Amino acid sequence: MSIALASYLIGIIGSLLLLTMIVILEAGDLYRAIYTMAVQSFLIALAGAVLGSATGNIDLWVIAGLTLAVKVVALPWLLLMVIHRMRIHRKIEVLMPVTVTLAIAAAIVMLTFYLSSSLGSVTQVITGNALPIGISLMLIGILVMMSRRTALMQMVGLFASENGIFFTAMAVSQGMPLIIEIGVTLDVILGALVMGVIILRVKSSIGSDIADLDELKG
Amino acid sequence: MFMSSLLWILPSVPVFTGLAMLLVKDRRLLSALDVASTSTIAALVWAIALKVMHGGTLKAANAFAADAVTVVFLALIALLSVAASIYTIGWMRREVASGGIAERRLPRYFALTQAFIATMLITVLADNLGLLWITMEATTITSALLVGFRRDPNGLEAAWKYIIVTTIGISFGLFGTVLIYAATAHAQGGATHGAMNFTTIASIASKLDPNIVRIGFIFVLIGYGTKAGLAPMHMWLPDAHSQAPTPVSALLSGALIKCALFGIIRFHTIAIGACGPGFSGFLLLLFGITSVVVATPFILTQHNFKRLLGYHSVEHVGIIALGLGIGGPLGTYAAFLHIINHGVTKALVFFVAGDAIGRYKTHNMDKIQGLIRVAPYAGTFLMMGAFSLAGTPPFSIFISELLVIKAGIASGHFAAIAVFLVMVIAIFAGLIHHAGKMAFGEPERPVPEKGEPVSGILAMTVLAGVMLVLGLTVPSALNGALTMAAEVTLGH
C-alpha cells in the first residue's frame, strides 16, 4: 500500500473516529455508549493495520491485534459484566444539555485543527490529520467524563479518550516502540480491573454508584 | 558492568519480596521482610549514588539510566521506605488489634506496598520516557488499591476519585510524550532509534522544533502536574492522602508526588534545550504560585488532621514548582533541596497523625488535644514537624524556602515572591495554631492508650534527625548531588 493511500485511509478513519466520539458523547444509554466505544477501538485497530501495511512495520500489526483483543473485546466485555453484576438501569443521567456538549465538542475540533495547522514541519512525521483528531478525541473524551455522573460512563469516556492517544501514537513516524505500547495496554487493563473492582465493591456494600458518593470535601 | 546491573537489581528487590510475602501469614515475619527489603533498597541506592557521583551517568538495557537527578529521588524514596517500614511494625500491631485491618489481609497489604515502592523506583530510574509513563500509571494502580484498602465507603470514594482523575490526567502526559517523540524522530530525519530515551532527546534538544516541544510540555505539565497535585488539578489529593493507611499516606505525600515532579523535571530539561528556560519556567512559576494560593484557605479552615496535611502537600509541591520556575542554578538547587526536605518532614508529620488518630479514634483536630501528655515523643515530633512545615529555623524547610526566595529576588520575580511570602505567613499562623492546640491542649476525655511503640519512635527519630541536620547544614555529599542535579536539569 502506498503512503498516499494510507494517508487517505487514515483521514477517513479519523473522521469516523470523531463520529463515534460524538455518538458516545450524546448516548443516552450505557449499552449504546459501550458498543460505540468498541466500534471506535475497532477503527483504531484498522488504522494500525493500514499503517502497518503502508510502512512495512510488523510492530504495527501486532499493536492492531493487541487493540482488537483488549479494547474491542476485553474492555467492553468487562464493562458489560459490571453492568450485569450491578443490575443497574441503562439510562444515563446527563449533567449538561446535549446542545451545550455538542457546541463544546465542535469548538474543540475547530481549535485543535487550527492549532495543528500552525505547527509546521513536525506534522510531516505524523500521518494525515492524526494529530488534531487525536487531540480532539482526547478532549471530547474528557467532556464525556465531565458531563456524566455514572461511574461506568466515566470509564467509557476514559477509554475513548485514550483511543485518541493511541491513534496519534500510531501515526507518528513508525509508531511507538512495541514494548512501550504493550506496557501502556497492560496499564489500561489493570486500571480497568481495579476500577471495576471498586465500582462493584461500593455497589455491594452501600448499594450506590460510586460516582454519586460525595462525602469527602473541604 | 556490574554497577549498571544494579539499576535493574534495585527494583527487583521489592518485586520478589512482595511475591514472597503473599506466601507468609505471620504479621511479624511480614514486617521483618518489609524492613529487610527497604534496608536492602537503601544499601543499593547508596551504592548507585556513590557510583553516579564519582563516575557519571549509569545506563542499563537502553531503558534505565541513573544521573544526579535520579539519585536525589532514589535517596528520598529509599529513606522514606525504610522509615515507613519501621513505623509500620507498631502501627500495624495496633491496627490489627483494633480491627482496622483484618489479619488475613496482611499479606496483600505488605505485598502491595512493595509493589508500590517498586513502581516508584522504576519511575525515577526510567530513561525511556514511555517506560516512565507506564510505571507512573502503575504507581496509581498499586496505590489506589492501598488507598481503598480498608474498603469503607470513604476510602473507596477517595480511591475512585484518585484513580479516575489521575489516570485521565496523566494520559495528557502520554500525549505529550508522543509529541516529543515525534519531534525527536523528525529531528533525527525520521529515525526512531532512541527517540524515546531521555538521554538521547536531551542531547539533541536544541534541534527539536520548539513549537511542538511547547505543546508537548503543556500536555506533560498538565498530565504529570495532576499526579503531582499542582493546583488546579489537585482536587483528588486531600481525599486520597487522608483516606490511605498512614504509612501509605506518608509515601504518597512524601515520595509519590515527587516522582510525578521527576517526570516534569525531565521534560523541563528538554523544553529548556529546545526553547530556552523562559517558556517552561514561566508555566512552572504560574502553576507553583497558583498551588500555594489555592491551598492556603483550605489549610486555614481545615479540621481534619490528615486532610490538612494533604492540602499542605499541594502548597509544598507549589513551592517546588516555584523554585524550578524561578530557575537558574540557585532556584533549581532550592527546588531539589525542597523535594528532600518536604518529603522527610511530611512523612514525619503523617506518622504523628497516624499515631494520634489511632489513639484518639478521630481525624478531627478539635478532638485531638494534649498529645504531648499522652504520647510525649509523638507530641514533641508534632511540634517539631509543624514548625518545620511552617518554615521556621532551625528546621530544614526554612533553608529551602529561604533559597527559593533568594533566587526569586535575585532574578527579579518580586510579585511572585511577595504573594508567596504573604501565603507562607498566613499558613505559619494557621499551622502553629492547629499543632499547638493538638500538642498542648487539655485532653477532652480520659484517653485510654498511653505508651508508644518503639518502632514508631525510632522511625520518627530518624526522620526528625534528618530534618534537624538539614536545617543546620547541607552535608557535602548531598550538596554535591543537589548541585549536579540542578546542572543536569538545566542542561549544562
In short:
The complex is a heterodimer of chains A (218) and B (492). Chain A is mainly alpha-helical and 218 residues long. Chain A has 7 helices and no strands.
Show the helix and strand layout.
The complex is a heterodimer of chains A (218) and B (492).
Chain A: H1 3-26, H2 30-55, H3 58-86, H4 98-117, H5 130-147, H6 151-171, H7 178-206
Helix pairs in contact in A: 1-2, 1-5, 1-6, 2-3, 2-6, 3-6, 3-7, 4-5, 5-6, 6-7
Chain B: H1 2-21, H2 27-55, E1 58-60, E2 64-66, H3 68-97, H4 106-125, H5 129-147, H6 153-187, H7 198-203, H8 210-228, H9 237-243, H10 246-275, H11 277-300, H12 305-326, H13 328-360, H14 371-374, H15 376-389, H16 396-410, H17 414-440, H18 454-472, H19 476-490
Antiparallel strand pairs in B: 1-2
Give a description of the structure.
The complex is a heterodimer of chains A (218) and B (492). Chain A has 218 residues and is mainly alpha-helical. Chain A has one domain. Chain A is built from seven helices and no strands. The mean pLDDT of chain A is 88. Chain B has 492 residues and is an all-alpha fold. Chain B has one domain. Chain B has 19 helices and two strands. Chain B has a two-stranded antiparallel ribbon with strand order 1-2. In chain B, a hairpin with a 3-residue loop joins strand 1 and strand 2. Chain B is globular. The model of chain B has no long low-confidence stretch (mean pLDDT 93). At the A-B interface, helix 5, helix 6 and helix 7 of A face helix 5, helix 6, helix 8 and helix 9 of B.
